[in-house]
Task: inverse folding
């Protein structure tokens, strides 16, 4: 698919892969996903099979989220934590069956994730098989994603629940389709068991019914949806509570790697917390300081952009917990000039108009 | 030879930072080039100087921002700001759509045109400069 990207897009290097940053315009690609459907080549994401007799026991040990309670066919967002409860990576685990999982991890983290799993083996009998190079991964996202993808697969997509997956075919190629994504919209991620012409055929067929989108739109979409980017918004120096990802910690689960460090003190009083800021004007950028109205520094921006939906600057970053109330006015220091904004909820957009919940919410009103 | 990728109109002078100036009478309009606007991609925000502000050649007078990045604007000429394109504040995308006409950014009353003009590129030279940049990019 690189040929398509090279001909159609503006190429940059990302996590060792050459990838397009835009095809036509980041704003157009972004709005195509919010209003109809867009496709993304996400083949750089790491894909690792975890199989073997003890794999069910291993996932309970290594992840803070209980997979045992979920049925086969569930796709679960979770984290790898270190013993200090710092975030090693965030990922999606596809529970294919009790002793078979597919892990979708960040490209730049794959090597350390594999090492972490080997080091956490503790005598358990399981196998890890990196299938990244022999598969292709395409995401299709947006309110028309069901209709667009349905043209290529016999799987009844409208019946699928969000955060579930199924094995099927897409344009005749064996694939796993999961109703997940990184944009806040409804949509699917497709793992194709083909890394050559068959995958290119799927991409080209989807490109006729959805807009090809590149890295620029992927970043602005995930930021508008309030989703953290590993290495930018979360890393080994942040724990899940600070990252506002406490919901991934299964309450009923007594012990997993990192659980000992998540004491009640840490759980109840994180020193800082990940929050959104909507600016009145100007565009916040990474590492800009956040101050209160008295001028005291209370945090800093980890990601910032212009929101094509809100037509305002938006930021994600960490603020001291006592200063993190939704609706509070703060300043972001933009090249020496304090500029006002408000602490905002995630996602940044109006969920009755955008995002996967839109129909659900508007139907219930 | 294939058609150039970027428009470089005649009658303008250009900087290495991809600003242009169009001199008429004792003032000059200033903007960014087609190359700059395409490289930045969607321009979503900009800051303008105030009318009356004194600018020095090659010193920053404002910024343009795309979704991803901030870029400084450098004045091709020294002089005083006589007008700014207020329409850009609500429609910064005009810079992408029409970098040399509707997307002009400021107008200045130049003070050292004769001297400073020698340090700016005529269209042919700027076109050549873009070719070198593209060649470097591809190698």
Result:
């Amino acid at each position: 698919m690189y040929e398509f990207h090279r001909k159609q897009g503006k190429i940059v290097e990302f996590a060792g892969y050459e990838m397009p940053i835009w095809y036509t315009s980041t704003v157009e690609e972004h709005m195509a996903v919010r209003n109809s459907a867009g496709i993304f080549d996400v083949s750089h994401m790491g894909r690792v099979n975890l199989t073997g007799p003890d794999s069910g026991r291993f996932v309970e040990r290594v992840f803070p989220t209980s997979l045992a309670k979920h049925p086969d066919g569930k796709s679960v967002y979770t984290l790898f934590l270190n013993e200090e409860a710092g975030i090693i990576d965030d990922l999606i685990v596809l529970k294919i069956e009790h002793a078979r999982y597919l892990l979708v991890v960040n490209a730049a983290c794959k090597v350390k994730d594999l090492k972490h799993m080997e080091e956490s083996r503790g005598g358990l009998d399981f196998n890890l098989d990196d299938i990244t190079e022999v598969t292709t991964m395409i995401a299709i996202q947006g309110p028309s994603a069901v209709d667009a993808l349905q043209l290529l697969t016999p799987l009844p997509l409208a019946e699928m629940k969000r955060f579930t997956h199924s094995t099927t075919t897409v344009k005749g190629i064996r694939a796993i389709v999961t109703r997940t994504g990184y944009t806040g919209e409804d949509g699917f991620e497709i793992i194709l068991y083909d890394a050559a012409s068959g995958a290119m055929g799927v991409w080209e067929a989807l490109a006729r019914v959805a807009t090809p989108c590149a890295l620029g739109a992927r970043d602005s979409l995930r930021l508008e949806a309030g989703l953290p980017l590993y290495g930018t918004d979360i890393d080994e120096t942040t724990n899940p509570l600070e990252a506002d990802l406490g919901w991934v910690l299964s309450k009923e689960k007594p012990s997993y790697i990192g659980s000992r460090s998540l004491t009640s003190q840490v759980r109840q009083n994180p020193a800082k917390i990940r929050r959104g800021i909507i600016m009145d004007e100007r565009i916040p950028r990474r590492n800009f300081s956040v101050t209160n109205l008295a001028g005291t520094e209370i945090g800093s921006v980890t990601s910032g952009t212009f929101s094509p939906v809100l037509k305002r600057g938006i930021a994600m970053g960490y603020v001291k917990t006592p200063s993190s109330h939704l609706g509070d006015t703060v300043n972001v220091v933009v090249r020496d000039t304090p500029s006002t904004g408000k602490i905002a909820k995630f996602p940044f957009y109006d969920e009755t108009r955008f995002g996967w919940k839109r129909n659900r919410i508007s139907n219930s009103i | 030879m294939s058609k150039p990728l970027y428009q470089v109109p005649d009658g303008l002078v250009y900087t290495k930072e991809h600003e242009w100036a169009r001199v008429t009478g004792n003032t000059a309009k200033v903007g960014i080039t087609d190359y700059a606007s395409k490289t930045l991609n969607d321009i979503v925000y900009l800051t303008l100087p105030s009318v009356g502000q004194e600018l020095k050649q090659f010193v920053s007078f404002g910024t343009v921002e795309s979704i991803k990045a901030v870029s400084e604007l450098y004045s091709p000429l020294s002089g005083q700001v006589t007008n700014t394109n207020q329409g850009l504040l609500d429609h910064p995308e005009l810079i992408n759509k029409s970098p040399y006409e509707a997307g002009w950014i400021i107008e200045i009353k130049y003070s050292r045109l004769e001297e400073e003009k020698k340090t700016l590129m005529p269209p042919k030279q700027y076109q050549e400069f873009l070719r070198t940049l593209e060649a470097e990019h591809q190698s």
